[in-house]
């Protein structure tokens, strides 16, 4: 994957919410738990700084596939 393709594939919490219906606060809660080493649901994320997280479309779609019943 090229750097350009990867950078355009980064999603904000609002975009993940739109894809999944999971509230932004819940996405950030899950992400914060994983950052502390606690097992939590939700898609994997990237920690860009202390104030910025992003999710790749690929990780969100993979997560949705794994929770399918």
General description of the model:
This protein has 69 residues and is of the alpha+beta class. It has one domain: Multidrug-efflux Transporter Regulator, Chain: A, Domain 2 (Orthogonal Bundle). The protein has helices at residues 3-8, 13-20, 24-35, 57-66, and strands at residues 10-11, 46-49, 52-56. The termini are far apart.
Q: What's the gist of this structure?
A:
The protein is built from four helices and three strands. By secondary structure, the chain is α+β, with helices and mostly antiparallel strands.
CATH topology: Multidrug-efflux Transporter Regulator, Chain: A, Domain 2
Low-confidence stretches: none
Strand content: 15-25%
Strand order of the largest sheet: 1-3-2
- Strand count, sense and closure of the main sheet? 3 strands, antiparallel
CATH architectural type: Orthogonal Bundle
Number of helices: 4
- What is the H-and-E element order? HEHHEEH
Name the assembly state. Answer: single chain
**In the residues, how many domains can be counted?**
1
Write down the CATH class. Mainly Alpha
Question: What integer value in Å does the Rg equal?
Answer: 12 Å
| Strand segment tally | 3
Fraction of helical residues: 40-55%
Shape: globular
Pairing-aware structural class of the strands and helices?
Answer: alpha+beta
Distance between the termini: 30 Å
Average pLDDT for all residues? 92
């Amino acid at each position: 994957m090229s750097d350009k393709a990867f950078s355009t594939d980064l999603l904000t919490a609002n975009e993940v919410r739109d894809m999944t219906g999971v509230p932004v606060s819940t996405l950030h809660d899950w992400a914060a738990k994983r950052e502390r080493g606690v097992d939590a649901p939700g898609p994997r994320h990237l920690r860009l700084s202390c104030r910025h997280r992003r999710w790749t479309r690929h990780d969100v779609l993979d997560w949705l596939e794994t929770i399918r019943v």
